[in-house]
Amino acid sequence: MVKMLLHSLLLLLLLDRKRNRVEGEQVGINYGRIADNLPSPSRVAKLLESIGITKVKLYDADPTVLTAFANTNVEFIAAIDNGKSIKPYLPATRITCVTVGNEILGGSQASLSANLLPAMQSVYQALVSFGLSDQVNVTTAHSLNILGSSYPPSSGAFSSDVARYIKPILNFHSKVKSPFFINAYPYFAYKADPVTVKLPYVLFEKNAGVVDSGSNLKYNNMLYAQIDSVYYAIKAMGHGDVDVRISETGWPSKGDSDEPGATPENAGKTGSTMGI
Ligand SMILES: *[C@@H]1O[C@H](CO)[C@@H](O)[C@H](O)[C@H]1NC(C)=O
């Protein structure tokens, strides 16, 4: 088990597929609150302000956090299970997006798969009833495990067991114009095959790159290749109209003996690539 993700980053990236580079890059942080000795939310607010971070993703909708960030520039993505829970904090706290469920499809919570879209729809309906649906996007965050095929990226496809849930979710995103969130960790691909997967390719260092034989696009790092495979999978379902955002990425600073490459140095390299 990865013990610590030192740089768990929220990246709001738009990938320019033709030029294979990132556009409109905005970096934020994932504010995880399951740990000892956490600084108080008001200290975190000051800290983030001092390092110029203006985007934060929460794994909850904690009142002390949302209150501490009232009347600041910080934009929030909050995790909720009903539309009411964020209403008291708006508009003083800038909550621009809510996630309903984290990595429900294709993982240990797959038994909830059929409930995911109805939960998203009910949060959306609540926001509509409060007149907030234009200010707050409704989405869910997926893990890369939802892909059955990701290499090369142009062969990207959802796995057959999640496809029937993904299709109506994509229709929802398209209809309400909200983005598709993916948690993408090149680290896990490296861990699974540290011989074939070259470290510079996953750490954004100079490397020969990998050419996708289907599209002839050359990828200089695995993160972009992973995101493109999600775009291709979405396109294969008939949706060229849904934005993909990286809701989490990062590199562990520490791991077990079967977790090569999990070092503070490598975590720092990933962090500085992202501008943190
Ligand atoms: C909601 O998501 C859409 C699609 O990615 C984006 O264009 C829009 O700016 C987002 N709205 C807010 C309030 O962030």
TrEMBL record:
- Recall the GO molecular function terms of this protein's record: hydrolase activity, hydrolyzing O-glycosyl compounds
Q: What is this protein called in UniProt?
A: Beta-1,3-endoglucanase, family GH17
| Keywords, in A-Z order | Glycosidase, Hydrolase, Signal
Q: Which organism is it from?
A: Zostera marina
Extract the ranges annotated as region (Disordered): 248-276
GO terms for CC?
A: plasma membrane
UniProt cross-references to SUPFAM superfamilies, sorted A to Z: (Trans)glycosidases
Signal peptide span: 1-24
Any one GO BP annotation for this protein: carbohydrate metabolic process
Regarding protein family, the annotation reads: Belongs to the glycosyl hydrolase 17 family.
Q: Does the keyword Hydrolase apply?
A: yes
